[in-house]
UniProtKB/TrEMBL annotation:
InterPro entries: SAM-dependent_MTases_sf (IPR029063), Thiopur_S-MeTfrase_Se/Te_detox (IPR022474), Thiopurine_S-MeTrfase (IPR025835), TPMT (IPR008854)
NCBIfam families membership: PRK13255.1, TMPT_Se_Te
MF annotations from Gene Ontology: thiopurine S-methyltransferase activity
Name this protein carries in UniProt: Thiopurine S-methyltransferase
EC number(s) stated in the UniProt entry for this protein: 2.1.1.67
Keywords, alphabetical: Cytoplasm, Methyltransferase, S-adenosyl-L-methionine, Transferase
Subcellular location: Cytoplasm
Enzymatic reactions: S-adenosyl-L-methionine + a thiopurine = S-adenosyl-L-homocysteine + a thiopurine S-methylether
Organism ancestry: Bacteria, Pseudomonadati, Pseudomonadota, Gammaproteobacteria, Cellvibrionales
Pfam families: TPMT
Top-level lineage group: Bacteria
Family of the protein in this entry: Belongs to the class I-like SAM-binding methyltransferase superfamily. TPMT family.
Signal peptide per UniProt: none
BP GO annotations: methylation
């Protein structure tokens, strides 16, 4: 997906992917990450998800990466937080207590700038990217986080019936992308109520990825 595709979506407020509350599968499966209070989570391609609010309310620290500055201005406004904004190389960093969001292309985010991460939560990030970007995405994500554990939510459906995003990412592809560094466990699979975009039967799958150490 071109960056202009996403920037236009935010400009036109066509954000059907944005949930009005924390994701039920995050709330259900988050404890399986086994994190200590105050642990720091990284949310790649975070948008203005209310999952950030939920994680902050649970006492965790959050880092995000998002292309659209509009999204992040809305995120901070909706959290009633006033950000400190600083240039960080090619990116901007929006910060408030326990929250840092890097605004710009996630592929430009470096490990030193991101800082230490205890776990990754990927909802609608891997599946937002076309197949030809997913290998680079998975490698970069592992590189900048030191292969931190992940809770990953994917979509599984017949890609012939509907184009992405969100894309179908098969179990085999997830294994290919991540089995070099992680033990993978499929912990849940639930049918999307009413079908994906109200049309196509789809499963939302929850994966727990724990680093091989
Ligand atoms: C499908 S949305 C998901 C947002 C969020 N994870 C959620 O669950 O609401 C994908 C997001 O990725 C952002 N994005 C796309 N390409 C990106 C990139 N290269 N770097 C950072 N963010 C990107 C888009 O602007 C969009 O907000």
């Amino acid at each position: 997906m071109e960056q202009s595709f996403w920037l236009q979506k935010w400009q036109k407020n066509e954000i059907g992917f944005h949930n009005p509350e924390a994701h039920a599968l995050l709330v259900k499966h988050f404890p399986q990450l086994g994190l200590q209070p105050g642990a720091r989570l990284f949310l790649p391609l975070c948008g203005k998800t209310l999952d950030i609010r939920w994680l902050l309310e649970q006492g965790y620290r959050v880092a995000g990466a998002e292309l659209s500055e509009t999204a992040i201005q809305q995120l901070f406004a909706e959290l009633a937080l006033t950000p400190q904004v600083a240039e960080q190389g090619e990116l901007k960093r929006y910060s408030a207590e326990n929250l840092d969001v890097f605004v710009g292309d996630m592929f430009q985010l470096q490990r030193e700038a991101l800082g230490s991460v205890d776990a990754i939560y990927d909802r609608a990030a891997l599946v937002a990217l076309p197949e030809n970007m997913r290998v680079d995405y998975a490698a970069h994500l592992q590189q900048i986080t030191g292969s931190a554990s992940q809770l990953l939510i994917s979509f599984d459906y017949d890609q012939n019936l509907q184009p992405g995003p969100p894309f179908c990412v098969s179990d085999e592809e997830i294994q290919r992308l991540y089995s070099g560094a992680y033990q993978l466990q499929l912990v849940d699979a639930v049918e999307v109520p009413g079908g994906l975009k109200g049309k196509v039967t789809a499963l939302e799958k929850v994966w727990l990825l724990q680093a091989n150490r």
